[in-house]
Amino acid sequence: MEKTWNNKAWFMVLPVLVLVAFSAVIPLMTVVNYSVQDTFGGNQFFWAGAEWFEEMLHSDRFWAAMGRNLIFSAIILAIQIPLGIFIALNMPRKGWGVPVCLVLMALPLLIPWNVVGTIWQVFGRIDIGLLGYTLHALGFDYNYVNDPFDAWVTVIIMDVWHWTSLVVLLCYAGLVSIPDAFYQAAKIDGASRWAVFRYIQLPKMQRVLLIAVLLRFMDSFMIYTEPFVVTGGGPGNSTTFLSIDLVKMAVGQFDLGPAAAMSIIYFLIVLLLSWVFYTVMTNYDVEK
Amino acid sequence: MAGTREAVADKDKMMRDAATTTGAVHGGVVDEALARRMRRRGEESRFWWVVPTIYIIFLMLPIYWLINMSFKSNQEILGAFSLWPQNPTLRNYAVIFTDPSWYKGYINSIIYVVMNTVISISVALPAAYAFSRYRFLGDKHLFFWLLTNRMAPPAVFALPFFQLYSAFGLIDTHIAVALAHCLFNVPLAVWILEGFMSGVPKEIDETAYIDGYSFPRFFVKIFVPLIASGIGVAAFFCFMFSWVELLIARTLTTTDAKPIAAIMTRTVSASGMDWGVLAAAGVLTIIPGALVIWFVRNYIAKGFALGRV
């Protein structure tokens, strides 16, 4: 759409600016403030410069949490995106099945995150949970409380359960926007199922897939509540992701300086990724 | 379902056959081909329901397990493993509905969620209009900056939020949580609304001005009704993200405004976990989501795509 140049539009954006400044800029400045200072309690602060940042960047604990988080995000994307596309392709396009599918599939998205954690914590328990009990009865040595591998599997299945529907809904939105004429043309050309997917459906889903990949990456990169409820970051540190580590440091140990430095590094990474997302997406819009 | 589809196709064909035999001037050959194609499509998708069904069963199993547990007594949960409650009891729900410290949690959650939704939508509406209609100094940077707030890890903000709201004496009030959740909900609302507003042709604005509408009157009387579905979707998403968030809500509250999700953690007592009540509380947190989702079911997908499909 052709937009007119009008700087008075600023007045319409002003309420949002004030509100977001209050809820984002002020807290962020507090974090910056802490990241360059040291304190021994009370209200006495000393200038520490880049000390905390250096400490963080040389900290094994930070890089271990970062590594775990990146692996987690990679696994999540590798499972959820193809699975989401596959389910969206098999969803009904019309009839009574559509609202039923949409509502039931969206249900996990609306459950408070710690309840999601609770559900899986219970579901996976070997004494009272359906999943844990069944696996145990089948002879698997499954116990997410003691075994890091089982803990990872549980957290990943939980995230797949929780968020795959988001990918499904996005892909579905892309798929229903394809006019029937496209399919008819493909039929006349005798296109195979794969060709229809590759040359009609996939290009049409490109944009929503982009949103899906980035939303899923961002959200899995800052995951906190669900694994915290299920595993508490353990056994050991095996499921301590970045956010869990950060909260442990800031609230648990009250190491404000290092925690603030970590927050800033964390936030900068997210900022960089958001920028890539935004640029790719606006470029895509321009091309269109 | 597949059967019904075929039946419909068959009926279609029969009707067409009847039409041709009664002499209606239709391309009989074309209709024949169409009917055949429809039938073949019906055959192809006879098993269309398999994948969604398996997926939905996978989604429903853990939820079913929670519901199942919520109707059992603690002895039964810990004692015998059963797929459905042997001695169904409403005791767990009774605990929640009779104890104010439990049901107040629901009221608290709903209060701050509604406050947040109202605040987010009312500030986002004019901003989204500005972004969708005008170019102005720094608009793209501003839009990007808003986006970054949606992407900000709540863990980064938990502690500074606590200090900020302490300084204003707002700790343990509903408005504190409602304002804090604006961090991610306002950008989201602006994005979704901007997507919907861009779908409304600009000619409508211009025509209204020519007809002598002032801007506020045009906005309220004409524009808002036009994007009513968009407002509904944005409100739904604000509701949703405020409802599911816990880290910030828990940090900012102690007793008076504590959300239900945080109260759930106190089922751990000296005598062990009260699994039944925990499950019942969990089931009750799912219900509001299930209710609101029904109203926006046709727009959910578009909303998740930030109004940009």
From TrEMBL, chain A:
One of its GO terms (cellular component) is plasma membrane. It comes from the Bacteria. Keywords: Membrane, Transmembrane, Transmembrane helix, Transport. Its main location: membrane. The keyword Transmembrane applies. Pfam families: BPD_transp_1. Residues 66-277 form the ABC transmembrane type-1 domain. The keyword Nucleus does not apply. InterPro entries: MetI-like, MetI-like_sf, Sugar_ABC_transporter. CDD domains: TM_PBP2. It is found in: Cell membrane. It is a multi-pass membrane protein. The chain crosses the membrane at residues 12-36, 70-89, 96-115, 160-183, 208-225, 259-280. GO terms for biological process: transmembrane transport. Belongs to the binding-protein-dependent transport system permease family. This is Glycerol transport system permease protein.
TrEMBL record, chain B:
The keyword Heme does not apply. Residues 106-296 form the ABC transmembrane type-1 domain. Keywords: Cell membrane, Membrane, Transmembrane, Transmembrane helix, Transport. CDD domains: TM_PBP2 (cd06261). Gene3D superfamilies: MetI-like. PROSITE patterns: ABC_TM1. Pfam families: BPD_transp_1. InterPro entries: BP-dep_ABC_trans_perm, MetI-like, MetI-like_sf. One of its GO terms (cellular component) is plasma membrane. It is a multi-pass membrane protein. Belongs to the binding-protein-dependent transport system permease family. This is Glycerol transport system permease protein.
